[in-house]
Amino acid sequence: MLYEAYEKIGYKKLMLVPVIIFLICLGFLFIQNQKTGEYVAKGIDLEGGAQLSFDINKDVNIQDLESYLRNDFGDIDVRKAVSVGGSTILIRTKEIDEEEMVSALEEYGFDMSSYSFQEIGASLGEAFFSQSITAVLIALFFMGIVVFFVFRNLIPSLAVIFAAISDILGTLGIMQFLGIELSLASFAGLLMVIGYSIDTDILLTTRILKRREGELKERISSTLKTGITMSGTTLAALFALFFASGSSILQEISAVLIIALLLDLPNTYMMNLGVLRWWMEKRKIK
């Protein structure tokens, strides 16, 4: 069924879908740059600032709480993370007095007997950001070396690398659209994205290019079924982690991976597969 739909639409037309998605995601990055001067919104662990978080067991109007705190603390950001186990309030700002903030929240009616406070200087946050960027670039570099070594063909190897880069940049773009800040946890998710993206593309390229059992259409059909099933089960597990986890860090990582996996489907099975098929037809490889 998947292969029939793939053939009916045509692989060259389907290749336009990931290109359009990629351009839209780049647009989100440029819009973010026009608004803030930076391509991505960074969390306090990469930009510097303070965060206070605590669990709640009642409904809270976030807008009212934010307005109440801004009267005393100025520019401040209040968010609520919801999970199966309950809800967590996250309060972020450039600078915060821990004792004054706790007192203000107690006056508002919260039980502050248990909370978490984190503060990171701007210089340290910038160092974390630089190191994280370096880690991603090194991972991409070594990934490229491995891919070229395995396939020893320029076009298939470039298709795999482009799919991984598209997954990362596309994920960053969607994060800006959804208001998800880039943090150390998000970077961890992006590193996982590189690994997963390469897995799906190597699976595709190996089955289509290196295996010779059956005709090309049979290999494509088998790869589509295996790859999409694999992505579907992974997405199911990540959605469960996102909604069931009470940890904001795990939710950030799972959110990044969910976005990336959804983008990886067209990047792998429309763009990469299309490039492989076009290349094989040019070289008359069956």
What does this structure look like?
The chain is an alpha+beta fold and 286 residues long. It has two domains: 2-42 and 123-282, Multidrug efflux transporter AcrB transmembrane domain (Multidrug efflux transporter AcrB transmembrane fold), CATH 1.20.1640.10; 49-120, Alpha-Beta Plaits (2-Layer Sandwich), CATH 3.30.70. Helices cover 72% and strands 10% of the residues. It is built from eleven helices and four strands; from the N terminus they run ααααβαββαβααααα. It has helices spanning 2-9, 11-14, 16-36, 44-47, 62-73, 98-108, 122-151, 154-178, 184-210, 216-244, 248-282; strands spanning 49-56, 77-83, 86-93, 116-120. Strands 2-3-1-4 form a four-stranded antiparallel β-sheet. Strand 2 (77-83) and strand 3 (86-93) form a beta hairpin. Helix 3 (16-36) packs across helix 11 (248-282), helix 7 (122-151) runs parallel beside helix 9 (184-210) and helix 9 (184-210) runs antiparallel to helix 10. The chain is elongated. The two termini are 22 Å apart.
Topology:
Elements: H1 2-9, H2 11-14, H3 16-36, H4 44-47, E1 49-56, H5 62-73, E2 77-83, E3 86-93, H6 98-108, E4 116-120, H7 122-151, H8 154-178, H9 184-210, H10 216-244, H11 248-282
Antiparallel strand pairs: 1-3, 1-4, 2-3
Helix pairs in contact: 3-8, 3-11, 5-6, 7-8, 7-9, 8-9, 8-11, 9-10, 9-11, 10-11
Report helical residue fraction. over 70%
Whole-number average pLDDT? 80
Largest sheet: 4 strands, antiparallel
- CATH fold-level assignment of the largest domain: Multidrug efflux transporter AcrB transmembrane fold
**Which range does the strand content fall in?**
5-15%
CATH class of the largest domain: Mainly Alpha
